[in-house]
Design goal:
The structure holds two protein chains of two kinds. Chain A is α+β, with helices and mostly antiparallel strands. In chain A, 36% of the residues lie in helices and 27% in strands. Chain A has three domains: 47 residues, Uridine Diphospho-n-acetylenolpyruvylglucosamine Reductase, domain 2; 115 residues, 2-Layer Sandwich (Uridine Diphospho-n-acetylenolpyruvylglucosamine Reductase, domain 3); 98 residues, CO dehydrogenase flavoprotein, C-terminal domain (Enolase-like, domain 1). In chain A, strand 11 and strand 12 form a beta hairpin. Chain B folds into two domains: 75 residues, Ubiquitin-like (UB roll) (Roll); 74 residues, [2Fe-2S]-binding domain (DNA polymerase, domain 1), CATH 1.10.150.120. The chains are: A alpha+beta, B alpha+beta.
Chain lengths: 291, 159
């Protein structure tokens, strides 16, 4: 029987209360939301928190809204709500692309965006999605709130910028004109982790690529930010040839390891193909949104 | 830790360790062994129950997290000897062989039809994509859910 090691449990009734508990209980305390990443890790003794603070009652952390020129998503928003959000489809369709292939519908009823990002598993899709759209993480502690870009959020495998006594409360994505986004993933079977996945966001201005974000899942120790490929694309006119070049860079700049999902050369090839496809689809959507 | 959970409309109160999983809390309750405990890793779907009407995997939820929530298990489907249409559908179309996945399949299918009374075959397949069956090849399970949807649609017209 797989059961987690013993721990103490408490339910938070407010964000401030959850943060106070984290500070009182110290580094061996963890937040639990959907629990669909944390509990499997605890069963395997890969995580051994002494205290769990349940934030499922904090309804104020569950929302998707447009405000202040940004899409704002509460950390407790569940995958199923990200999948069904018409606002997200309109603004950042990359979320629906990804949510259709994250785990399975039953798991999506529980898992949350905050949990996914804080787990910081390199194979997890939403980290790549949030990196591509240049999201910002809102982290709250006793001293107040700080906002961290995704490039600084992932500090290592399973490690994030969320420090001791802090809670990820929201994800904010600036809305910019001429944007389109897409996620491409190949997995072995329904609901599985990616063999490789690529997220891309493109912002067009006058037919040229004003800005672009590309990130890869499952082909390195952390989510891979493809800054060299982004550099190549900025300021240029989108074309199949250009996106093929970006794909070639993706193949070079990822660092997959061989496992049951495939050998290194296959994963590199896949990372390249998926990058090209994601860029192509994101650009088509950016053009559609403009017209 | 004292936990009180509504299971199939009845309050079950027990002193449990916080680490107890919902699937074990349910199965330790007399008469409620219909919920199956399968892979323990949220892959197989045998342990699916409904929490506030939504299907969830009870091997990946702590019992203590369910206090104040409504849990429904496979035992709630049959009422006064009358099978739920999804159960009847499984019977009619031979949608099970060993039966191990059946409770989770039934609770997943029931939730689907409650939300979407007329799903396409593809929507049915997507809904049960988090549940593994090693006997049927899924074809008859899809047919069973289809049977239940058609049965319920016909019943509605008669009213």
């Amino acid at each position: 029987m797989q059961t987690p090691a013993a721990f103490e449990y408490e339910r938070a009734t407010s964000v401030e209360g959850a943060i106070a508990s984290l500070q009182r209980l110290g580094p061996e305390a963890r937040i639990i939301a959907g629990g669909h990443s944390l509990l499997p890790m605890m069963k395997l003794r890969l995580a051994n928190p002494e205290h769990l603070i349940d934030i499922n009652d904090l309804a104020e952390l569950s929302y998707i809204r447009e405000e202040g020129g940004e899409i704002r998503i509460g950390a407790l928003t569940r995958h199923v709500d990200l999948l069904k959000s018409e606002l997200l489809v309109e603004r950042f369709p990359v979320f629906r692309d990804a949510e259709q292939v994250i785990a399975d519908p039953v798991v999506r009823n529980r898992g949350t965006i905050g949990g996914s990002l804080c787990q910081a598993d390199a194979a997890e899709d939403l980290s790549a999605v949030c990196s591509a759209v240049k999201a910002k993480a809102v982290i709250r502690g006793a001293a107040g709130e700080r906002v961290v870009g995704m490039e600084d959020f992932h500090v290592g495998p399973f490690q994030t910028a969320v420090g001791e006594g802090e809670l990820l409360t929201a994800v904010r994505i600036p809305i910019r004109a001429g944007g389109g986004s897409a996620h491409e993933k190949v997995e072995r079977r329904a609901g599985d982790w990616a063999i490789a996945a690529a997220s891309a966001a493109v912002w067009l201005d006058g037919g040229m690529i004003a800005d672009v974000g590309i990130a890869l899942s499952a082909v390195g120790l952390t989510t891979i930010h493809l800054s060299r490929a982004e550099e190549l694309l900025r300021g240029k006119a989108p074309s199949d040839e250009l996106f093929a070049q970006a794909g070639a860079i993706a193949s070079e700049d990822c660092s997959p390891s061989a496992d049951g999902r495939g050998p290194v050369d296959y994963k590199r090839h896949l990372a390249g193909v998926l990058t090209t496809r994601a860029l192509t689809r994101a650009t088509a959507r950016a053009k559609e949104a403009r017209s | 830790m004292n936990v009180s959970i509504s299971i199939n409309g009845e309050r079950v109160t027990r002193d449990v360790e916080p680490r107890q999983l919902l699937v074990h809390f349910i199965r330790d309750t007399p008469g409620l062994t219909g919920t199956h405990w399968g892979c323990d890793t949220s892959n197989c779907g045998a342990c699916v129950v409904q929490m506030d009407g939504e299907p969830v995997k009870s091997c990946t939820i702590l019992a203590v997290m369910c206090e104040g929530h409504e849990i429904r298990t496979v035992e709630s489907l049959e009422v006064d000897g009358q099978l739920d249409p999804v159960q009847q559908g499984f019977h009619e179309t031979h949608a099970l062989q060993c039966g191990f996945c059946t409770p989770g399949m039934l609770m997943t299918a029931r939730a689907l039809l409650d939300e979407n009374p007329n799903p396409t075959d593809q929507e049915i397949r997507t809904a049960i994509s988090g549940a593994i069956c090693r006997c049927t090849g899924y074809k008859n399970i899809v047919a069973a859910v289809r049977w239940a949807a058609d049965y319920e649609a016909a019943a509605k017209q008669e009213v």
